[in-house]
Structures are given as C-alpha cells and as structure tokens.
Amino acid sequence: MWLLAALARLQPATESQAEDESSLRQLASGDQTAAAGLYDRHARPLYSLILRILGNETEAEDVLQDVFAQAFRQASRYDARRGAVAAWLLTIARSRAIDRLRARRTRVETVAGETKTLDEMPDAQPDAASTMLDEERSRLVRRALGELPMLQRMAIELAYYEGLSHSEIAERLEQPLGTVKTRIRMGLLKLRDVLTEGRA
Amino acid sequence: MTAHEELKASAAGYVLGSLDPEERRAFESHLAGCAECAEQVASLRPVVGALATAVLQVTPRAELRERILSGAAPRAGTDARIHDRKSPAALTWLPLAAAIIIAVGAGIYAVRLQRQIGELRARFDQAQATTAVLAAPDLARIDLQGQQVAPDARARALWSRSRGLVFTAANLPPAPAGKAYQVWVVTAQAPISAGLLTPDPSGAGTQFYMTPADIAPPVAVAVTLEPAGGVPAPTGERYLIGMP
Hints:
heterodimer, A: mainly alpha, Rna Polymerase Sigma Factor, Chain: A, Arc Repressor Mutant, subunit A, B: alpha+beta, 3 domains, 8 strands
C-alpha cells in the first residue's frame, strides 16, 4: 500500500534514535555539548508543530525554547521503553503549546491588531536537502488525514491542534457529546489502519 | 454498553488529550487494570505521533538556535527580525492585498514578492483554516434563510474577525451556465465580496474565506447569483440572506 511503503522508507533511522539517546545520557550527566545535536535533529519538526498550534512566530519561538530547556533539564527522565526521543519531544512540545494557547484564550483578545507588515513576509528560500525527508513524511500523513470524512477530521484537529475538550468540540460543532466521541474514535482508528496497513 | 465498553471508547480521546477531566480520571483508573484498553492506547499513540508531524514543516530562524543553546533569556519580541517562514494560519487578507498592489508596480522586487505570495497561497490549507475559525475565541454565527427564488436553501456563516469566515450552504439550486454564487459580507458602508461559492450537485458547499481584519462589523451576510467569475458589487438575484 502506497502510504505504508512510503512511510517505511521515511521512518527515522535507528542511528538517529541511538544518537538521541546518547545525547540525552550526556546531558543527564551534565555535558551540555550534546544539546546542539539534539537541537539540530529536532528543532524543525518541533517548531513546526508549535507554530501550527499557536500561529505566531514570537510565541512559537518562546515555546520552543521552553521545550528544549525542559528536555535538557529532564534528560534523565527519558525512558526509551515508552517511545522514541522524537515522540517524547513532540509530546512535550504539544503540551507546552496547548498550555500557552489555553492561557491565551482566557485573556481578552485584541482581534484587530494582527496585521502584518510587508517586511514580515517570509522569504521564499528553497529548503535544504536535509529537510526533504520530514517534509515528505509530513505530506503523507496530511494526505491520510485528508482522506477522513470531514467531521471526523475536524473533531480530531480541534482536539489535537486546538486543545479543545470533547465537550468544547461538541459545542463548536453543535453535535451531541457522544457523537463527537465516536467521530474522534472512528477517525483515529481509521488513521491507525491507514498508517499501519500491511506493516504487520 | 458495559462500563468497560464505554470506557474503551474513551481511549482515543485519552491519547489525544481531549477527555474532560472527570472522564480522564475515570479512564485512567480503569486503564491501570485493563489490558485491552492498555493495548488500544498503545496502538493509538503512534497515530497521535503522526498527527504531530502532519503539519507544514517550517525551519526556525537561525538566531533561535544560538539563543536556545546558550540558554539565554528570551529577547523582547519587538526587535526587527528577519522571518524565515510564515505560518499560513497567520495570514490575513490585508498584507496579501497590500503585497499585490505593490507588486504590480515595483519592478524586480515584484517578481520576488509574487513568487512568495504564490507559494503562500499554495500552502494555505483550507481545512486547517476552517478548524481555526471554529476554535476562534471571537466566533460569531449568522444563519441565512433562502429567499423567494430558493426558499429551501439554508446556510450558516461562522465568522471570526481574527481568523476568517467559514460558509456552509445547503439546497442551493444548480447555478445556470455562465453564472456563479457569490458570498457577501454586508457592512454598514458596503457589501464586501467574500468570494465565490461552488455547491456540489446536491446544492451543498462549504468554503473558507479570509476577511479583512479591519472590516466594519457585518450587518448581514448574503449570497447572490452573479456572472461567472464574480463582480465587485452585488447585481444579481439574492438567494440567501442572514443577519447576526
């Protein structure tokens, strides 16, 4: 199946996980020089996720800094049995970004002040070859997500990227709570099947 | 449904982190003693991991590396900065329009800007924009009623000043050849075109539109039938109208 084959090719190399584990061991023993490697391997996907959640570069940069500070500080707590270092870092990033988003929601928003000036427009620089891989992987998962029925996809996106609870999603989508739970479950199970199909 | 089945249904919400607090506590205490639920949670975790990477990949600014690795305190966010990439979700209509106007008259510089704009547009993810509107803190809802020409038509506009407009319509009759439906945000000053709406054969359609951040508060949202391609101000028959 196309997605499986493609993802299998793109699975993060085990050497990278080994490097990550060794970086964390060094950090845990107080050797800060390992921080650079960890940053270089993970800053881009972490920043991308945080930026997707917050939609604001300044805040995303602050949160990325918090995430690495936490990772460097808690390096000794990483447990390889519970998943790859990349997944551990992404979990920290998502949780920090959602905390920031929720804090922002409780403040009164100044909605009109978001206008960007021209010099804030991004530069159209070509991506470095090293980023092609996560670009491609990301595209494939987005495609799988795009194949879900719209309401399943929306419920999942509101939960994961916007940090809304089931009852908040039910309210936004004007659906009964039970329906929202079912949609989220169906959607995730379907994504799981698509992502793992044929791998067994 | 047994208690176990009911709780197992919470596994997806648990890994996504979207359970309400009480539900989460109930599921966690069940999870500790239920191998089947533990297995379900374990099998769904990689899916959530995939969601984490299913976003547009953006490289952080080079300066950030130094700041983070040196453990320096965050600088004030006001200094002049060169941005590497811009989140599509952060786009507003206004800078794009301004960029287009300048690009028309600005020679070589225009070529670069136009390339950027094209790239930004290509990256803009409609579905992502839609969920952003739904989650907006300033969300407003406007229901539209079918007018004489299409009494069965219904529509709903979900509008956030900061995030844009999501428009969903149903039961619109097929647009005749050479004609198209156009969505208008009517302000006290003038109707502003949101854009065209192309319903599917059943007459249903959902579309995201960016609206200017400085738009006057809408007094109505309307859909008219216009010449294909749209017009700058409404001329045709009104199909749907709704007021906040």
